[in-house]
Amino acid sequence: MEKLRDTLRVRRERAILVGAVFAGNSEKSDGLIELAALAESAGAIVVDKFQQKIHKINAATYIGKGKTEQLAGRVIRFNADVIIFDNDLTPSQIREIETIVKTKVLDRSELILDIFATRAQTKQAKLQVSLAQLEYTYPRLTKMWQHLDSVAGAGGGTTAGAVGAVGTRGTGEQQLEIDRRLVKKSITELKRQLQEIDKRKIREIDARRGSFKACLVGYTNSGKSTLLNTLTGADAVTEDRLFATLDTKTKKWMMDGAAEVLLSDTVGFVRNLPHQLVASFKATLEEAVNADMLLHIVDAANPNAIKQIEAVRKVLAEIGCGDKPVMEILNKVDVIKKIGDLELLQTLFPDAVCISAKTGFGLDVLKNKIMEKYRGTELLLRVTSPQSNGKAQSFMRAYGRITKEDYSGDSVIIEVNMGRNHLAGLQRLGIEKIEIIESRLI
Ligand code: GDP
Ligand code: MG
User: Fold this and answer.
1) How many beta carbons lie within 10 A of that of residue 347, not counting itself?
2) CATH level 3 topology of 208-373
3) Is the fold of 208-373 the same as that of 376-441?
4) Do the Cβ atoms of 128 and 177 come closer than 8 Å?
5) Which CATH entry fits the domain spanning 376-441: 3.40.50.720, 3.30.428.10, 3.30.70.240, 3.30.420.40?
6) Which atom of ligand 1 is nearest to the CA of 356?
7) pLDDT value at position 347?
C-alpha cells in the first residue's frame, strides 16, 4: 500500500488549485481559500489558482477538454507537481486529466484523507484513517492500473485491445489482483482491531453515564480546543491549522457550586467531509452522540461562518445527533472586523452566545447558560438509606418520581427520577449511598 499512499502525498509539492463553479449557481465561491488552507495544512505550496465557470460537469475531464489543456500549460509555467481539485472526481476523470496535464491529480477527499493521515496520533485515529483511505482508494485501484498500463504502452498501442506490451499488461493485472486481495485483507483486519478499541471506548463512555456531559463540536479551526483549554486548563493542541485535533479529549470542568461538567473536544468538521471518514470516525464521535448537550463553536470572524454552520449541522445529522440540544457559540468575536457581520449572525442565531476563547470575553455568560441546562437535567438515582429515614423518603416523594423500592434488612433501596437541582438537598438528609444511574436533559 505504501506505493499508492506515496502517490497521493503532497508534502512540499508545488500545487495548482482548481475549482469549478457552476454558472447560474447563486452560491458565492470562497475563491478557493479553504482548499488553499487544506493544501497548506497537508504541506503543499500553492503556486496557482484556476477557477472556472462551467455549465455542466464534463464526463471525461470535469471542467472540459479546452480548460484542461489550459491547465496543462500552467503546469509547465508554474513548474507544478500536483493539481488539486476542489470538487470530487471519478477515477476515470482523474486518469483522463492526468493524461492531459502530465502530472498527478488529486481530489478534495483524497487531500483531506492525506491531512488526516499526517495528523493521526493515537492508534485508534491511525486505524480509522487507514480504513477510510483503503475504502476510498480501493474502488479507484482498477482505473489507476489501467492508467499505468496505457502509459506504459503509449508508444506502441493502436487499438484498445493491443495497448501496452503483453508483459506489462500482464504484470499490471496481476498486480491489481494482488492489490485487491491485500486491500480486502487489510480492511477486514483494520475493522477487527477497531472493534476492539471501540468496545473499550464504549465502556469508557458508559462509565461516565451519570455525569453531565457537554461536547464541543464545530468546523475545523473554530476554536474548540482553545475553549477546552481556557475552561478546564487542559493542554489540548491548538493551532491555526485545519484538523489539528483528531482525537477526543475529555476534561472535568468545575463550575460554580461544585457543579461538575465533563467537557469533550472532538475532531473538527469540514464541508463535504468524505463519508468514509465520517463512518470510520463514528466511534470517536460517540462522545457527541452520548453527550447531554452539544456546544457548537463557530468561528464568527470567518467570512464563511454561515456555510460552516450548515456543514456542521449536516455532519451532526449524519452521525445521529440531529435531535440533540445544541448551544451555538459565536467565537473569536475579538477579531471580527465589521460589526455588521456579527449582527447578521446574531439575527440568524438569536440564542447564540458571543465569546472569545482567547481573551475570555463572554465566558461568564456561557457558564451561566450551561449551568441552567445542568440544573435542568433529570437524574435517575439509586438511593440506599436506612428505612427509618422518613425525611429522605418524603423528600424523594415530594421532589421526585419513585420508580422502584426494595426493602432489605434495615435499608431501603429506592430508584427515583429527580431534577439535578434537588441533588444537593437530598445529599444533606443522612443517606448511605447515592448512585447516579442516568442523566438526561429535559
Ligand atoms: P479547533 O480546530 O476548533 O480545535 O481550533 P483551535 O482551538 O486549534 O484554534 C484554531 C486557531 O484559532 C488557533 O490559532 C487559536 O489560537 C485561534 N483562536 C481560537 N479562539 C480564538 C479567539 O477567541 N480569538 C482569536 N483571535 N483566535 C482564536
Ligand atoms: Mg482542535
Assistant:
1) 8
2) Rossmann fold (3.40.50)
3) no
4) no
5) 3.30.70.240
6) 23
7) 93
Residue 249 Cβ < 6 Å to ligand 1: no
Ligand (nearest to CA of 295): 1
Task: Indicate the average pLDDT of the chain.
Answer: 83
- Domains of the chain by residue range: 2-108, 120-152+173-198, 208-373, 376-441
8 A C-beta contact, residue 44 and residue 11: yes
Atom of ligand 1 nearest to the CA of 241: 10
Residues 58 and 49: their CA atoms lie apart, in Å, by 20
Amino acid at 98: E
- Confirm if 2 and 117 have CB atoms less than 8 A apart: no
C-alpha cell at 263: 467537557
What's the CATH superfamily of 2-108? GTPase HflX, N-terminal domain (3.40.50.11060)
pLDDT in tens, 384-409: 999 999 999 999 999 999 999 999 88
Any atom of ligand 1 within 6 Å of the Cβ of 245 = yes
105 three-state secondary structure = strand
177-220 per-position pLDDT tens digit: 777 787 788 889 989 998 888 888 778 777 777 778 899 999 98
Q: What is the pTM of this model?
A: 0.77
Compute the distance from residue 361 Cα to the ligand 1 centre, in Å.
Answer: 14
